[in-house]
Amino acid sequence: MVKLELIIDQFGFNIVHYAKFSYHFEMIPLDETDQALIAALRQDARKSVTELAGILDVTRTTVRTRLDRLQASGQITRFTIETNIPPEHAVRAVSFIALQGQITRGVSRALLKLPQVSEVHSTNGAWDLVVNLKCTNLADFDQALRGLREIPGVSNSETCLLLTRIAG
Fold first, then answer.
1. What's the CATH architecture for 2-72?
2. 137-164 pLDDT, tens digit each
3. Domain ranges, ordered by start, for the chain
4. Among 38, 57, 139, residue whose Cα is nearest residue 147
5. What CATH number has the domain spanning 91-162?
6. Is 117 helix (H, G, I), strand (E, B) or coil?
7. Rounded to whole angstroms, how far apart are CA atoms 115 and 19?
8. Which long-range contacts (CB under 8 A, 24 or more apart) does 116-124 make?
9. What is the pLDDT confidence band of residue 95, given thresholds at 50, 70 and 90?
10. Cβ of 39: how many Cβ atoms within 10 Å?
């Protein structure tokens, strides 16, 4: 089964569409009006229901009903925008931290003072803390690592850059 997804990322205005395989929804047959609606959304997914009704020469109720049906069937899964503006946090990473002794609270407070640190978690296993980092660029990431390693009580750390988002 093929699922049609209209994509618009959150900061730009270019629209991309693509098909991907899905086993979650049953495809409904698309008539000429459905196809014209999808074509109009591919050109500009920000068009209002009123504008779409004018383009298709149908009522607003018809457009709304068809949009709802296409979304419910999974043929349109979301509306988003794609942009060439870099995301606010272009570099994301996870740091695993080992501590010297029982000083988790003090190190956690110091970590949270670093602007790049978004979350601090205690954990089990070889590492004492797990830290999520959100950095604007690699220089900012480098500064975060230096700051993290200079905190008294941090004995060791290992950091993994988050590369490609696979899901979620």
1. Orthogonal Bundle (1.10)
2. 899 999 999 999 999 999 999 999 999 8
3. 2-72, 91-162
4. 139
5. 3.30.70.920
6. strand
7. 39
8. 116/140, 116/141, 116/143, 116/144, 116/147, 117/144, 117/148, 123/96
9. very high
10. 12
